[in-house]
Amino acid sequence: MWESIQDMCLHVVFILFTILIYQVFFNEREEKQKNIQSKFFLFMLIILVFTMSQPVLYSDIYKYDFKAVAIILSFLYGGKRVGFAAFLALLITGYFTDQRLLVLAGNYTVFCLLLLPITSLFHRYRLRGKIIVISLFYMSIPITRGISLQIKGDDRQTIFELSSSLIVLATLIVIIYLIENMNEQIKMKQELIRAEKLNVVSQLAASVAHEIRNPMTSVRGFMQLMQKENLTTEQQMYIRISIEELDRAQEIINQYLALAKPQTEQYEVVDLSSVIQQSIDVMRSYAILNSIHITQQVESSLIIHGLKLEIQQVLINVIKNAVEAIKSEGEIWITAAKQSADFISIQIKDNGVGMTDAQIKKLGSPYYSTKEKGTGLGLTVCHQIVKQMGGQIVIESELNKGTCFTIHLPTVK
Protein backbone atom coordinates (compact mmCIF):
# COMPACT_ATOMS: atom_id res chain seq x y z
CA MET A 1 0.00 0.00 0.00
CA TRP A 2 2.87 2.39 0.80
CA GLU A 3 4.29 2.00 -2.70
CA SER A 4 0.89 2.95 -4.14
CA ILE A 5 0.73 6.04 -1.92
CA GLN A 6 4.24 7.04 -3.06
CA ASP A 7 3.09 6.74 -6.68
CA MET A 8 0.11 8.94 -5.85
CA CYS A 9 2.44 11.57 -4.40
CA LEU A 10 4.31 11.65 -7.72
CA HIS A 11 0.97 12.35 -9.43
CA VAL A 12 0.37 15.15 -6.93
CA VAL A 13 3.73 16.76 -7.76
CA PHE A 14 3.04 16.55 -11.50
CA ILE A 15 -0.44 18.11 -11.15
CA LEU A 16 0.78 20.94 -8.89
CA PHE A 17 3.67 21.67 -11.25
CA THR A 18 1.29 21.81 -14.24
CA ILE A 19 -1.08 24.20 -12.42
CA LEU A 20 1.81 26.45 -11.36
CA ILE A 21 3.07 26.69 -14.95
CA TYR A 22 -0.41 27.74 -16.12
CA GLN A 23 -0.86 30.30 -13.34
CA VAL A 24 2.59 31.87 -13.70
CA PHE A 25 2.94 31.99 -17.47
CA PHE A 26 -0.60 32.16 -18.86
CA ASN A 27 -3.30 33.22 -16.41
CA GLU A 28 -1.79 36.64 -15.66
CA ARG A 29 -1.80 37.76 -19.29
CA GLU A 30 -4.47 40.14 -20.59
CA GLU A 31 -6.20 37.97 -23.19
CA LYS A 32 -9.67 37.23 -24.45
CA GLN A 33 -11.75 34.88 -22.29
CA LYS A 34 -11.92 32.27 -25.08
CA ASN A 35 -8.11 32.13 -25.29
CA ILE A 36 -7.83 31.75 -21.51
CA GLN A 37 -10.41 28.94 -21.49
CA SER A 38 -8.72 27.08 -24.35
CA LYS A 39 -5.34 27.22 -22.60
CA PHE A 40 -6.86 26.12 -19.30
CA PHE A 41 -8.51 23.19 -21.07
CA LEU A 42 -5.16 22.25 -22.65
CA PHE A 43 -3.54 22.02 -19.22
CA MET A 44 -6.47 20.01 -17.83
CA LEU A 45 -6.11 17.68 -20.83
CA ILE A 46 -2.42 17.17 -20.02
CA ILE A 47 -3.35 16.23 -16.43
CA LEU A 48 -6.12 13.89 -17.61
CA VAL A 49 -3.98 12.04 -20.13
CA PHE A 50 -1.05 11.67 -17.70
CA THR A 51 -3.05 10.47 -14.70
CA MET A 52 -5.24 8.08 -16.71
CA SER A 53 -2.37 6.60 -18.72
CA GLN A 54 -0.21 6.14 -15.58
CA PRO A 55 -2.70 5.01 -12.91
CA VAL A 56 -1.68 3.93 -9.43
CA LEU A 57 -1.95 0.12 -9.26
CA TYR A 58 -3.23 -1.17 -5.94
CA SER A 59 -4.18 -4.64 -7.14
CA ASP A 60 -4.93 -6.43 -10.40
CA ILE A 61 -8.53 -5.25 -10.27
CA TYR A 62 -8.13 -1.87 -8.62
CA LYS A 63 -6.50 1.20 -10.20
CA TYR A 64 -6.54 4.77 -8.97
CA ASP A 65 -5.90 8.10 -10.67
CA PHE A 66 -6.59 11.84 -10.33
CA LYS A 67 -9.03 12.36 -13.20
CA ALA A 68 -11.65 13.68 -10.76
CA VAL A 69 -9.31 16.60 -9.94
CA ALA A 70 -9.06 17.63 -13.60
CA ILE A 71 -12.83 17.40 -14.11
CA ILE A 72 -13.62 19.40 -10.95
CA LEU A 73 -11.09 22.13 -11.82
CA SER A 74 -12.40 22.30 -15.40
CA PHE A 75 -15.92 23.09 -14.18
CA LEU A 76 -14.86 25.41 -11.35
CA TYR A 77 -12.40 27.60 -13.26
CA GLY A 78 -13.08 26.89 -16.92
CA GLY A 79 -16.88 26.96 -16.98
CA LYS A 80 -19.44 24.61 -18.53
CA ARG A 81 -17.79 24.41 -21.95
CA VAL A 82 -14.37 23.51 -20.57
CA GLY A 83 -16.00 21.12 -18.07
CA PHE A 84 -17.91 19.12 -20.67
CA ALA A 85 -14.94 19.26 -23.07
CA ALA A 86 -12.83 17.70 -20.30
CA PHE A 87 -15.57 15.07 -19.80
CA LEU A 88 -15.40 14.20 -23.52
CA ALA A 89 -11.59 14.03 -23.32
CA LEU A 90 -11.94 11.73 -20.31
CA LEU A 91 -14.11 9.29 -22.31
CA ILE A 92 -11.71 9.33 -25.29
CA THR A 93 -8.70 8.78 -23.01
CA GLY A 94 -10.59 6.04 -21.17
CA TYR A 95 -11.27 4.26 -24.47
CA PHE A 96 -7.54 4.15 -25.29
CA THR A 97 -6.40 3.23 -21.76
CA ASP A 98 -8.48 0.05 -21.43
CA GLN A 99 -10.92 1.38 -18.85
CA ARG A 100 -14.49 0.19 -18.50
CA LEU A 101 -16.01 2.81 -20.76
CA LEU A 102 -19.70 2.32 -19.90
CA VAL A 103 -19.03 2.45 -16.14
CA LEU A 104 -16.75 5.44 -16.63
CA ALA A 105 -19.34 7.27 -18.76
CA GLY A 106 -22.17 6.53 -16.30
CA ASN A 107 -20.28 7.57 -13.19
CA TYR A 108 -18.85 10.77 -14.62
CA THR A 109 -22.09 11.82 -16.33
CA VAL A 110 -23.69 11.95 -12.89
CA PHE A 111 -20.49 13.55 -11.51
CA CYS A 112 -20.55 16.34 -14.12
CA LEU A 113 -24.27 17.03 -13.70
CA LEU A 114 -23.79 17.38 -9.94
CA LEU A 115 -20.89 19.76 -10.55
CA LEU A 116 -23.13 22.29 -12.35
CA PRO A 117 -25.00 23.49 -9.20
CA ILE A 118 -21.85 22.96 -7.07
CA THR A 119 -19.91 25.34 -9.36
CA SER A 120 -22.58 28.03 -8.97
CA LEU A 121 -22.52 27.58 -5.18
CA PHE A 122 -18.71 27.50 -5.11
CA HIS A 123 -18.32 30.99 -6.61
CA ARG A 124 -20.64 32.60 -4.05
CA TYR A 125 -18.14 32.13 -1.22
CA ARG A 126 -14.70 33.32 -0.26
CA LEU A 127 -11.72 30.96 -0.02
CA ARG A 128 -12.71 29.18 3.19
CA GLY A 129 -16.29 28.66 2.02
CA LYS A 130 -15.08 27.39 -1.37
CA ILE A 131 -12.85 24.80 0.27
CA ILE A 132 -15.71 23.62 2.52
CA VAL A 133 -18.13 23.32 -0.42
CA ILE A 134 -15.76 21.31 -2.61
CA SER A 135 -14.60 19.13 0.34
CA LEU A 136 -18.17 18.15 1.22
CA PHE A 137 -18.93 17.43 -2.44
CA TYR A 138 -15.82 15.34 -3.09
CA MET A 139 -15.82 13.37 0.17
CA SER A 140 -19.36 12.16 -0.45
CA ILE A 141 -17.92 9.93 -3.21
CA PRO A 142 -15.26 7.97 -1.25
CA ILE A 143 -17.57 7.69 1.76
CA THR A 144 -20.24 5.95 -0.35
CA ARG A 145 -17.54 3.76 -1.95
CA GLY A 146 -16.12 2.93 1.49
CA ILE A 147 -19.57 1.89 2.76
CA SER A 148 -19.97 -0.32 -0.32
CA LEU A 149 -16.56 -1.97 0.27
CA GLN A 150 -17.36 -2.49 3.96
CA ILE A 151 -20.56 -4.27 3.02
CA LYS A 152 -18.44 -6.58 0.83
CA GLY A 153 -16.05 -7.09 3.76
CA ASP A 154 -12.97 -5.69 1.99
CA ASP A 155 -11.35 -3.81 4.89
CA ARG A 156 -7.92 -3.44 3.28
CA GLN A 157 -9.25 -1.85 0.13
CA THR A 158 -11.54 0.42 2.21
CA ILE A 159 -8.50 1.80 4.05
CA PHE A 160 -6.68 2.45 0.77
CA GLU A 161 -9.80 4.05 -0.73
CA LEU A 162 -10.16 6.49 2.15
CA SER A 163 -6.43 7.29 2.43
CA SER A 164 -6.06 7.83 -1.32
CA SER A 165 -9.19 10.00 -1.35
CA LEU A 166 -7.73 12.15 1.42
CA ILE A 167 -4.58 12.64 -0.71
CA VAL A 168 -6.74 13.66 -3.69
CA LEU A 169 -8.78 16.03 -1.52
CA ALA A 170 -5.63 17.58 -0.06
CA THR A 171 -4.31 18.07 -3.60
CA LEU A 172 -7.58 19.68 -4.65
CA ILE A 173 -7.54 22.04 -1.66
CA VAL A 174 -3.91 23.07 -2.32
CA ILE A 175 -4.71 23.74 -6.00
CA ILE A 176 -7.79 25.82 -5.13
CA TYR A 177 -5.72 27.78 -2.59
CA LEU A 178 -2.99 28.43 -5.19
CA ILE A 179 -5.43 29.49 -7.92
CA GLU A 180 -7.50 31.71 -5.62
CA ASN A 181 -4.42 33.28 -4.06
CA MET A 182 -2.81 34.06 -7.43
CA ASN A 183 -6.11 35.35 -8.84
CA GLU A 184 -6.36 37.65 -5.83
CA GLN A 185 -2.84 38.92 -6.49
CA ILE A 186 -3.74 39.59 -10.14
CA LYS A 187 -6.80 41.55 -9.01
CA MET A 188 -4.70 43.54 -6.54
CA LYS A 189 -2.20 44.35 -9.29
CA GLN A 190 -5.01 45.51 -11.61
CA GLU A 191 -6.49 47.56 -8.76
CA LEU A 192 -3.10 49.18 -8.15
CA ILE A 193 -2.78 50.12 -11.84
CA ARG A 194 -6.32 51.50 -11.74
CA ALA A 195 -5.55 53.53 -8.59
CA GLU A 196 -2.45 55.01 -10.24
CA LYS A 197 -4.51 56.06 -13.27
CA LEU A 198 -7.11 57.67 -11.01
CA ASN A 199 -4.36 59.48 -9.12
CA VAL A 200 -3.01 60.95 -12.36
CA VAL A 201 -6.51 62.03 -13.42
CA SER A 202 -7.16 63.54 -9.98
CA GLN A 203 -3.96 65.57 -10.02
CA LEU A 204 -4.66 66.79 -13.54
CA ALA A 205 -8.21 67.73 -12.59
CA ALA A 206 -7.18 69.61 -9.47
CA SER A 207 -4.49 71.61 -11.29
CA VAL A 208 -6.31 72.72 -14.45
CA ALA A 209 -10.08 72.30 -14.01
CA HIS A 210 -10.69 75.63 -12.25
CA GLU A 211 -8.50 77.51 -14.71
CA ILE A 212 -10.45 76.06 -17.65
CA ARG A 213 -13.86 76.67 -16.05
CA ASN A 214 -13.40 80.45 -15.60
CA PRO A 215 -12.83 81.37 -19.31
CA MET A 216 -15.55 78.91 -20.34
CA THR A 217 -18.03 80.67 -18.05
CA SER A 218 -17.11 84.01 -19.63
CA VAL A 219 -17.51 82.63 -23.17
CA ARG A 220 -20.91 81.16 -22.30
CA GLY A 221 -22.06 84.48 -20.87
CA PHE A 222 -21.11 86.35 -24.05
CA MET A 223 -22.87 83.70 -26.14
CA GLN A 224 -26.06 84.22 -24.14
CA LEU A 225 -25.80 87.99 -24.67
CA MET A 226 -25.41 87.42 -28.42
CA GLN A 227 -28.62 85.36 -28.43
CA LYS A 228 -30.55 88.52 -27.53
CA GLU A 229 -29.29 90.30 -30.66
CA ASN A 230 -31.20 90.36 -33.92
CA LEU A 231 -29.59 87.32 -35.55
CA THR A 232 -30.61 84.98 -38.35
CA THR A 233 -32.08 81.58 -37.58
CA GLU A 234 -28.86 79.92 -38.70
CA GLN A 235 -26.74 82.12 -36.41
CA GLN A 236 -29.08 81.40 -33.48
CA MET A 237 -28.64 77.67 -34.15
CA TYR A 238 -24.82 78.01 -34.15
CA ILE A 239 -24.89 79.86 -30.81
CA ARG A 240 -27.28 77.30 -29.29
CA ILE A 241 -25.00 74.42 -30.35
CA SER A 242 -21.97 76.29 -28.97
CA ILE A 243 -23.69 76.76 -25.58
CA GLU A 244 -24.70 73.08 -25.48
CA GLU A 245 -21.12 71.98 -26.17
CA LEU A 246 -19.80 74.38 -23.51
CA ASP A 247 -22.29 72.87 -21.04
CA ARG A 248 -21.10 69.36 -21.96
CA ALA A 249 -17.49 70.41 -21.40
CA GLN A 250 -18.55 71.91 -18.06
CA GLU A 251 -20.11 68.60 -17.06
CA ILE A 252 -16.88 66.76 -17.93
CA ILE A 253 -14.91 69.21 -15.77
CA ASN A 254 -17.34 68.63 -12.90
CA GLN A 255 -16.72 64.88 -13.23
CA TYR A 256 -12.95 65.47 -13.10
CA LEU A 257 -13.42 67.56 -9.95
CA ALA A 258 -15.51 64.78 -8.42
CA LEU A 259 -12.51 62.48 -8.89
CA ALA A 260 -10.08 64.98 -7.40
CA LYS A 261 -12.27 65.98 -4.45
CA PRO A 262 -11.21 64.20 -1.24
CA GLN A 263 -13.97 62.59 0.80
CA THR A 264 -14.31 64.72 3.94
CA GLU A 265 -18.00 64.34 4.83
CA GLN A 266 -19.01 61.95 7.58
CA TYR A 267 -21.04 58.92 6.60
CA GLU A 268 -24.58 58.70 7.93
CA VAL A 269 -27.23 56.02 8.20
CA VAL A 270 -29.05 55.97 4.85
CA ASP A 271 -32.41 54.40 4.01
CA LEU A 272 -31.24 52.68 0.82
CA SER A 273 -34.75 51.52 -0.14
CA SER A 274 -35.93 55.14 -0.19
CA VAL A 275 -32.87 56.32 -2.17
CA ILE A 276 -33.39 53.60 -4.80
CA GLN A 277 -37.06 54.56 -5.15
CA GLN A 278 -36.19 58.25 -5.52
CA SER A 279 -33.57 57.44 -8.17
CA ILE A 280 -36.08 55.33 -10.12
CA ASP A 281 -38.65 58.14 -9.92
CA VAL A 282 -36.09 60.64 -11.25
CA MET A 283 -35.19 58.42 -14.23
CA ARG A 284 -38.66 57.06 -14.99
CA SER A 285 -39.67 60.00 -17.20
CA TYR A 286 -36.39 59.70 -19.17
CA ALA A 287 -37.10 56.00 -19.66
CA ILE A 288 -40.71 56.64 -20.77
CA LEU A 289 -39.50 59.13 -23.39
CA ASN A 290 -37.45 56.29 -24.89
CA SER A 291 -40.36 53.79 -24.62
CA ILE A 292 -38.57 51.82 -21.90
CA HIS A 293 -40.39 50.15 -19.01
CA ILE A 294 -38.76 49.92 -15.56
CA THR A 295 -39.70 46.95 -13.37
CA GLN A 296 -38.66 47.14 -9.73
CA GLN A 297 -38.52 44.77 -6.77
CA VAL A 298 -36.91 46.50 -3.81
CA GLU A 299 -37.01 45.16 -0.27
CA SER A 300 -38.05 47.62 2.41
CA SER A 301 -35.87 48.75 5.32
CA LEU A 302 -32.51 48.35 3.58
CA ILE A 303 -30.07 50.39 5.68
CA ILE A 304 -26.43 51.28 4.92
CA HIS A 305 -23.72 53.74 6.00
CA GLY A 306 -22.87 56.30 3.33
CA LEU A 307 -23.73 59.62 1.71
CA LYS A 308 -27.24 59.83 0.29
CA LEU A 309 -26.45 62.15 -2.63
CA GLU A 310 -23.44 60.11 -3.75
CA ILE A 311 -25.38 56.84 -3.64
CA GLN A 312 -28.13 58.49 -5.67
CA GLN A 313 -25.51 59.72 -8.16
CA VAL A 314 -24.29 56.13 -8.67
CA LEU A 315 -27.81 54.74 -9.16
CA ILE A 316 -28.91 57.49 -11.57
CA ASN A 317 -25.72 57.09 -13.60
CA VAL A 318 -26.13 53.31 -13.96
CA ILE A 319 -29.86 53.56 -14.78
CA LYS A 320 -29.14 56.29 -17.35
CA ASN A 321 -26.49 54.06 -18.95
CA ALA A 322 -29.02 51.22 -19.09
CA VAL A 323 -31.58 53.44 -20.85
CA GLU A 324 -28.99 54.60 -23.38
CA ALA A 325 -27.85 51.00 -24.00
CA ILE A 326 -31.40 49.97 -24.92
CA LYS A 327 -32.03 52.94 -27.23
CA SER A 328 -35.81 52.38 -27.32
CA GLU A 329 -38.62 49.92 -26.56
CA GLY A 330 -36.88 47.81 -23.97
CA GLU A 331 -37.05 46.94 -20.30
CA ILE A 332 -34.95 47.55 -17.20
CA TRP A 333 -35.21 45.34 -14.11
CA ILE A 334 -34.11 46.80 -10.77
CA THR A 335 -33.92 44.60 -7.68
CA ALA A 336 -32.45 45.21 -4.23
CA ALA A 337 -32.22 42.74 -1.39
CA LYS A 338 -30.11 41.79 1.60
CA GLN A 339 -27.96 38.90 0.35
CA SER A 340 -26.20 38.14 3.65
CA ALA A 341 -25.62 39.57 7.11
CA ASP A 342 -22.87 41.77 5.66
CA PHE A 343 -23.98 42.93 2.21
CA ILE A 344 -26.93 44.36 0.30
CA SER A 345 -27.03 43.77 -3.46
CA ILE A 346 -28.63 46.09 -6.01
CA GLN A 347 -29.09 44.70 -9.53
CA ILE A 348 -29.80 46.92 -12.52
CA LYS A 349 -30.36 44.75 -15.58
CA ASP A 350 -31.29 45.76 -19.13
CA ASN A 351 -31.96 44.01 -22.43
CA GLY A 352 -29.83 46.41 -24.46
CA VAL A 353 -26.92 45.99 -26.84
CA GLY A 354 -24.64 44.34 -24.27
CA MET A 355 -20.84 44.31 -24.25
CA THR A 356 -17.94 42.01 -25.04
CA ASP A 357 -15.57 40.67 -22.36
CA ALA A 358 -12.89 43.11 -23.55
CA GLN A 359 -15.27 46.07 -23.12
CA ILE A 360 -16.29 44.92 -19.63
CA LYS A 361 -12.63 44.78 -18.51
CA LYS A 362 -12.04 48.38 -19.63
CA LEU A 363 -15.34 49.73 -18.32
CA GLY A 364 -14.88 52.17 -15.43
CA SER A 365 -11.42 53.25 -16.61
CA PRO A 366 -10.92 56.98 -17.27
CA TYR A 367 -11.27 57.99 -20.93
CA TYR A 368 -12.96 54.70 -21.90
CA SER A 369 -16.64 54.66 -22.87
CA THR A 370 -18.85 52.57 -25.14
CA LYS A 371 -20.92 55.68 -25.92
CA GLU A 372 -20.06 57.91 -28.86
CA LYS A 373 -19.76 61.09 -26.76
CA GLY A 374 -18.91 59.45 -23.44
CA THR A 375 -15.75 60.08 -21.43
CA GLY A 376 -15.90 57.09 -19.08
CA LEU A 377 -15.62 59.41 -16.08
CA GLY A 378 -19.19 58.78 -14.91
CA LEU A 379 -18.57 55.10 -14.19
CA THR A 380 -15.09 55.89 -12.87
CA VAL A 381 -16.69 58.16 -10.25
CA CYS A 382 -19.30 55.46 -9.49
CA HIS A 383 -16.59 52.85 -8.88
CA GLN A 384 -14.74 55.26 -6.62
CA ILE A 385 -17.84 56.14 -4.58
CA VAL A 386 -18.81 52.48 -4.07
CA LYS A 387 -15.23 51.48 -3.23
CA GLN A 388 -14.94 54.26 -0.61
CA MET A 389 -18.05 52.83 1.04
CA GLY A 390 -16.44 49.37 1.18
CA GLY A 391 -18.56 48.01 -1.66
CA GLN A 392 -18.02 46.60 -5.13
CA ILE A 393 -19.54 46.89 -8.60
CA VAL A 394 -19.76 43.65 -10.61
CA ILE A 395 -20.61 43.84 -14.32
CA GLU A 396 -21.98 40.93 -16.37
CA SER A 397 -22.93 41.33 -20.00
CA GLU A 398 -23.58 39.42 -23.20
CA LEU A 399 -23.44 41.03 -26.63
CA ASN A 400 -26.89 41.79 -28.09
CA LYS A 401 -28.60 40.35 -24.99
CA GLY A 402 -28.08 42.92 -22.24
CA THR A 403 -26.04 43.98 -19.23
CA CYS A 404 -26.40 43.51 -15.49
CA PHE A 405 -24.76 45.87 -12.97
CA THR A 406 -24.65 44.42 -9.44
CA ILE A 407 -23.73 46.89 -6.70
CA HIS A 408 -22.71 45.27 -3.39
CA LEU A 409 -22.83 47.63 -0.39
CA PRO A 410 -22.03 46.78 3.25
CA THR A 411 -25.08 46.88 5.48
CA VAL A 412 -25.37 48.39 8.96
CA LYS A 413 -24.54 45.76 11.58
From TrEMBL:
Q: Known catalysed reaction(s)? A: ATP + protein L-histidine = ADP + protein N-phospho-L-histidine
Bilayer-crossing regions: 7-25, 40-58, 70-96, 102-122, 129-147, 159-179
Give all residue intervals belonging to the Histidine kinase domain: 207-413
Q: Which GO terms describe its molecular function?
A: ATP binding; phosphorelay sensor kinase activity
Q: What is its EC number?
A: 2.7.13.3
**Gene3D superfamilies from the entry?**
1.10.287.130, Histidine kinase-like ATPase, C-terminal domain (3.30.565.10)
Write down the superkingdom of origin: Bacteria
What InterPro entries does this protein's entry cite? HATPase_C_sf, HATPase_dom, His_kinase_dom, HisK_dim/P_dom, HisK_dim/P_sf, Sig_transdc_His_kin-like_C
Q: Which UniProt keywords apply?
A: ATP-binding, Kinase, Membrane, Nucleotide-binding, Phosphoprotein, Transferase, Transmembrane, Transmembrane helix, Two-component regulatory system
Q: What is this protein called?
A: histidine kinase
Organism the protein comes from: Fictibacillus phosphorivorans
